[in-house]
Amino acid sequence: MQRLKVLVTRRWPAEVEARLADAFDVTLNETDTPLTGAELAAAMGEYDVLCPTVSDRIDAAVINGGGRVRLIANYGVGFDHIDLAAAKARGIAVTNTPGVLTDATADIALTLILMAARRAGEGERELRAGKWSGWRPTHLIGSALKGKVLGCVGFGRIGIATARRAHHGFGMKIAYYGRRPCEDAVVQELQAEFCPDLNDLLDKADFVSLHVPGGGETANLIDAAAIARMKPGSYLINTARGGVVDHDALAAALKSGHLAGAGLDVYPAEPAVPPALLGIENVVLLPHLGSANAETRIAMGMCALANVEAFARGADLPNRVA
């Protein structure tokens, strides 16, 4: 029986690449150079399975470039970089890797909250530049976390994990906005307040943390009006998707002092960072580190592998999104 031809578009953890190579006819990207749209389109006609990441734009032009691929096994939970409608029209299944990066992403959300609140990025830049003149009572005064309200926009696995860390670890109060109230056990555990209207959450949150999928109705969800609605002196944290935020409006609010700070791990056109943010001191900018620990990246690869293995067997796909 002929083995499936699989293309892995970027380098994956060595353990996962080895497992894929044992089971399938795999082509690896040895240089880890992002593939062009033309290369991805050509691959659609040469392989049975395409294994992309968030750095690959799998749009309709790519999907319609060839007729062989029948599974797009995405390495990552987000799939707004894949045109699901075009894939469906061509009879191509799409899977992702949910669940395995919950804790890692929640850890980064707390990292950003702490860094923004305590002005850690500003302090490190000052010290490395040789500008620190020593301790003084009024130097880089930030915000405490205990007793402050963390408002989670979206309250799925990652939002809940972030809230647990903030509430149990730092004594923060929890409010959340979502389509429906969370299950009673979680609400009771976190003493969480449900806000059915986003503006209600923005009115009361000292820290707003985004945990919604990208694209569709969440595009530009935190726009100029939403940012203006946030409490003066509050903070915006984004570990979700870059397109959820209007970055020009965010930059203006940071410069004016309406927002005390922000922490971002994602951007709309990665690896480009919105230029308006680059010269602002009171924003923490991380290079999409949400899932970047060894255990999580291996688990993501194994999850993607499980989807490919199920496809090869003709079984139900564990993590099908389209």
TrEMBL record:
<dbReference type="InterPro" id="IPR006139">
    <property type="entry name" value="D-isomer_2_OHA_DH_cat_dom"/>
</dbReference>
<dbReference type="Pfam" id="PF02826">
    <property type="entry name" value="2-Hacid_dh_C"/>
</dbReference>
<dbReference type="GO" id="GO:0016491">
    <property type="term" value="F:oxidoreductase activity"/>
</dbReference>
<comment type="similarity">
    <text>Belongs to the D-isomer specific 2-hydroxyacid dehydrogenase family.</text>
</comment>
<dbReference type="InterPro" id="IPR050223">
    <property type="entry name" value="D-isomer_2-hydroxyacid_DH"/>
</dbReference>
<protein>
    <submittedName>
        <fullName>2-hydroxyacid dehydrogenase</fullName>
        <ecNumber>1.1.1.-</ecNumber>
    </submittedName>
</protein>
<feature type="domain" description="D-isomer specific 2-hydroxyacid dehydrogenase catalytic">
    <location>
        <begin position="6"/>
        <end position="321"/>
    </location>
</feature>
<dbReference type="InterPro" id="IPR006140">
    <property type="entry name" value="D-isomer_DH_NAD-bd"/>
</dbReference>
<dbReference type="InterPro" id="IPR029753">
    <property type="entry name" value="D-isomer_DH_CS"/>
</dbReference>
<dbReference type="InterPro" id="IPR036291">
    <property type="entry name" value="NAD(P)-bd_dom_sf"/>
</dbReference>
<dbReference type="Pfam" id="PF00389">
    <property type="entry name" value="2-Hacid_dh"/>
</dbReference>
<feature type="domain" description="D-isomer specific 2-hydroxyacid dehydrogenase NAD-binding">
    <location>
        <begin position="110"/>
        <end position="290"/>
    </location>
</feature>
<keyword id="KW-0560">Oxidoreductase</keyword>
